[in-house]
Amino acid sequence: MSIHTPPSPAVRHASAGPRRPVRREPLRLNTFLRRLPLRLGVLILLVFEIYPLLWLFLGSFKTQDEFQNNPAWALPEGLEWNNYAEAWTTGHMGTYVRNSLLSVVPSLFLIILLGVAAGFALEVMVFRGRNTLLLTFLAGIMVPSQMILLPLFTIYFQAGLTGTLWPLIITYTATGLPLTVFMMATYFRAVPREVFEASTLDGAGIIRSFFSIGFPMVRNAVFTVALVQFFFLWNDLLISLTFTNSDGLRTIQAGLLSFQGQYGTVQWGPLFAAISINVLGTLVLYLFLNQRVMKGLAAGAVKG
Question: Are 251 and 103 a contacting pair, CB within 8 Å?
Fold first, then answer.
């Protein structure tokens, strides 16, 4: 006669087979509900950001009859590519883009060259009065552009510079330098001083330290500052309207403002096409340099 003993808990657990996975649907549902307001906010933001660009781009393919007879949100019935050709030739967009490049590119080059060198000198070099000089540049940021336009116009007129693009180049450079110097000084502050001290011990001069060590270490920051300044200068309207006295000297923003009066009545298709050329050009440039801009923004966040 055998005595039956019940199995131990370990044996019962082993013979019970694999455990069924715990259901996590409530946890996932709670996570989804917590993130739902954020996702809705991002979706609403995308609608407000992307819909105007999409509406602008689609409107550039509409005919004049579609603008007059159809609702504003209606899709184009066809692709009127002639709007872009008319905006570029009859609307003088080619001239406006050329004038913008001839005034913005030299100004941006001078701003970056002088601003990076000044930021390096104010933060890395040690000399008497550098803090006062940095505060002077900071004071330049707080001067409104509207206050200096009339005195500058008088100076340019007496110097015989009116009727050229030189007033734009000089004014753009002067107004862009204070912010550039301040930003570059901030970025150079994040560079460890030991690096420059080691280069000095190795016999490198100040110019070699700047081009061989300082500039390469803030290269992404230079791209960031250059892109910020480019958008400021490219989208300028007030300075361009003040110092350009003929249609052949207008930049793209001033040209878009006077675009409506070139046909007697407003030709909405070519006007939308001209605005699309301006907007899409700057958007493609930003998307191309987006990664460098992000690296440059984070470069001065933490001091090395």
Answer: yes
Exposure string (b/e) for 50-82, b if CB count within 10 Å is 16 or more?
eeeeeeeebbbbbbbebbeeeeeeeebeeebee
Q: Which two tokens stand for residue 221?
A: 């920051």
CA–CA gap between residue 277 and residue 93 (Å, rounded) = 9
Q: What does the DSSP assignment read for 29-93?
A: HHHHHHHHHHHHHHHHHHHHHHHHHHHHHHHTT--HHHHHHS-TTPPPSS--THHHHHHHTTT-H
Closest CA to 75 of 60, 58, 53, 56: 58
Outline where 190-258 has alpha helix (H).
193-201, 206-209, 215-217, 219-234, 238-243, 252-257
Do residues 76 and 67 touch, judged by C-beta distance below 8 A? no
Residue 223's CB is within 10 A of a number of other CB atoms, namely 17
Q: What is the pTM of this model?
A: 0.77
- Please state, rounded to an integer, the average pLDDT across all residues of the chain: 80
- Sign, Cα dihedral of 252, 113, 195, 124: negative
| Token duo for residue 252 | 């793209």
CA distance 201 to 213: 14
Condensed to tens digits (0 to 9), the pLDDT of residues 94-134 reads 888 899 999 999 999 999 999 998 888 888 777 777 778 88
Burial class of residue 117 in the structure, from the number of CB atoms within 10 Å of its CB (0-12 exposed, 13-18 middle, 19+ buried): middle
Q: The tokens 């300075």 sit on which residue? A: 239
Q: Whole-angstrom Cα distance, residue 50 to residue 44?
A: 10
